[in-house]
Amino acid sequence: MARSSKENRKEEILEAGLEVFAKRGYYNTTTAHIAEKAGISQPYVFRFFKTKEELFIAALERAFERILQTFKNVDAAPEQLVEEMIAAYEELSALYPNEIALQVIGISVTENAVRSATKKGLSSIQSYTVDRFKAAGIENVEREVTTFLARGILCNISYFIDLPELIDDQKNK
């Protein structure tokens, strides 16, 4: 029971961190802000995460893992794979907007550990997508994956800065 409660508290801190980092950014967020959001004392945050950076990386890793899992759950015919993966990502973005914001923030953080976590997360998504597109028989895989990922990153930026015109194809039709 105590283990379960401890894991729940860690999860609450992580969720509070996701929300606060998404709203305030990395540099403007303190562990005191996160503790306040979680309804706990600041020292209690440090029982689970040694630093703000460690908490941010845990949140960022969750975001990337959730994207990977979303793509893995897509069950589509090869000719529908790209469209289905895009639809799955759009749904994920609506369900977890804080994690989408965290990806944009993660790209802007200059600390080496955060950069490393961002690179690792993006690389794992790129690698999985290459493998998945190859298995589906998609031609020009590297170009198609680059376009797919670039569009995803543009969607993230569009959401983050509230500029839907960056990706709204309807205006040009």
UniProtKB/TrEMBL annotation:
Q: Which SUPFAM superfamilies match?
A: Homeodomain-like
Q: Which residues bind DNA?
A: 30-49
| InterPro entries reported in the protein's UniProt record | DNA-bd_HTH_TetR-type_CS, Homeodomain-like_sf, HTH-type_TetR-like_transc_reg, HTH_TetR
Query: Highest taxon of the source?
Result: Bacteria
Q: Which Gene3D superfamilies match?
A: Tetracycline Repressor, domain 2 (1.10.357.10)
Q: Where is the HTH tetR-type domain?
A: 7-67
Q: Which key words are in the record?
A: DNA-binding, Transcription, Transcription regulation
What protein name does the entry list? Answer: TetR/AcrR family transcriptional regulator
Organism from which the protein derives: Gracilibacillus salinarum
